[in-house]
Automatic annotation (TrEMBL):
InterPro entries: dCTP_deaminase, dUTPase-like_sf, dUTPase_trimeric. PANTHER family: DCTP DEAMINASE. Keywords: Hydrolase, Nucleotide metabolism. Transmembrane segments: none annotated. It holds the Pfam family DCD. One of its GO terms (molecular function) is dCTP deaminase activity. The lineage of its organism: Bacteria, Bacillati, Actinomycetota, Actinomycetes, Kitasatosporales. This is dCTP deaminase. It comes from Streptomyces endocoffeicus. Its EC number is 3.5.4.13.
Length: 179
């Protein structure tokens, strides 16, 4: 079951769901709009290595916006910190943003029960596109879970700002299996 807009508002009010800052005007019939934060990251090397930490460049989006370029992966973040110990969040790009040619969060839309923090957004434009801090970039839907709950305790807990991949922390497990 998916939470309706009124139930999202109720769950925020009674503490079952945390959205900070929260504005009921961003609630949709069955989702909540999240906004793009002011910081972007890009990887600094031509080749990204899954088994190592990769250096990044930080970009600040000023009041004139920032033009995203095709062929580049941008890591953005939500303004809002979102999380719940009861509901499963899924983040998707808004259809209005998709119609501008911006792919948002295509490969990793699901959040874990127990994650609390700003969401990192994977942004990929198909043509040059000017984006602005604070623009509504995505929407989060919340699903009711069934069964025992094992809260998220992973490497991105409490994220603030865009987070580069920490897959390399898992690389030791991958190398052990390959040996």
């Amino acid at each position: 079951m998916i939470l309706t807009g009124p139930e999202i508002n109720t769950a925020v009010a009674d503490g079952r769901l945390r959205i900070t800052p929260f504005d009921p005007k961003q609630t949709n019939p069955n989702s909540y709009n999240v906004r793009l934060g002011a910081t972007l990251l890009t990887y600094a090397t031509k080749v990204i290595d899954a088994h190592h930490a990769n250096p990044t460049h930080t970009i600040r989006i000023d009041t004139d916006g920032y033009v995203l370029q095709p062929g580049e992966l941008y890591l953005g973040h939500t303004v809002e910190e979102v999380g719940s110990d009861l509901f499963i969040p899924l983040l998707f790009g808004r259809s209005s943003v998709g119609r501008l040619g911006l792919f948002v969060e295509i490969t990793a839309p699901i959040g874990d029960i127990g994650f609390h923090g700003q969401w990192t957004l994977m942004l990929s434009p198909i043509r040059p596109l000017r984006v602005y801090a604070g623009m509504k970039i995505g929407q989060i839907m919340f699903f009711v879970s069934t069964g025992d709950v094992d809260l998220y305790r992973g490497k991105y807990q409490g994220a603030a700002g865009p987070q580069p991949s920490r897959y390399w922390r898992d690389a030791a497990h991958v190398q052990a299996v390959a040996s």
